[in-house]
């Protein structure tokens, strides 16, 4: 869990019921799908979830590769804090889970009213996103190299 976000859930001014609520879901429950609208951020309090992509091979064939599995303490859905775009991935429970569901709009209002708390939390979230972006970049370069080799393009370079 983003350490500052964990402490935020315990902060007396960040009241459960106003800024966030707990939610329990059974195994194999789809929390959201890629393309869905979303303005909530999730903190996984217990259980595990799987993040999957949605890849169209052609008009009729689609696959959902697993991107990663997340366990207790993980934060997901955080892009909702930064834009109003649709969800970029799907998330499904692998086992029963308990979540802290944070309203993104209310969270940002709280940060505006309490910048001494909001800044460290946003910094931690940005550091987490930067780490994920670096991993994604590595995967893209690896896939590019693989594609060049598979199609023998590497021999032409």
UniProtKB/TrEMBL annotation:
It comes from the Bacteria. Signal peptide: none annotated. PROSITE patterns: CNMP_BINDING_2, CNMP_BINDING_3. SUPFAM superfamilies: cAMP-binding domain-like. It holds the Pfam family cNMP_binding. Residues 25-128 form the Cyclic nucleotide-binding domain. This is cAMP-binding proteins.
């Amino acid at each position: 869990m983003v350490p500052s976000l964990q402490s935020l859930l315990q902060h007396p001014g960040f009241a459960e019921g106003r800024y966030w609520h707990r939610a329990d879901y059974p195994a194999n429950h789809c929390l959201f799908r890629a393309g869905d609208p979303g303005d909530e951020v999730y903190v996984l309090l217990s259980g595990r979830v799987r993040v999957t992509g949605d890849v169209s091979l052609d008009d009729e064939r689609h696959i959902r590769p697993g991107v990663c599995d997340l366990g207790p303490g993980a934060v997901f859905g955080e892009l909702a804090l930064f834009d109003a775009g649709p969800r970029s991935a799907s998330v499904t429970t692998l086992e029963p889970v308990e979540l802290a569901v944070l309203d993104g709009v209310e969270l940002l209002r709280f940060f505006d009213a309490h910048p001494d708390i909001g800044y460290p939390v946003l910094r931690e979230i940005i550091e987490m996103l930067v780490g994920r972006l670096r991993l994604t970049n590595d995967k893209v370069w690896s896939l590019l190299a693989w594609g060049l080799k598979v199609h023998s393009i590497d021999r032409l370079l």
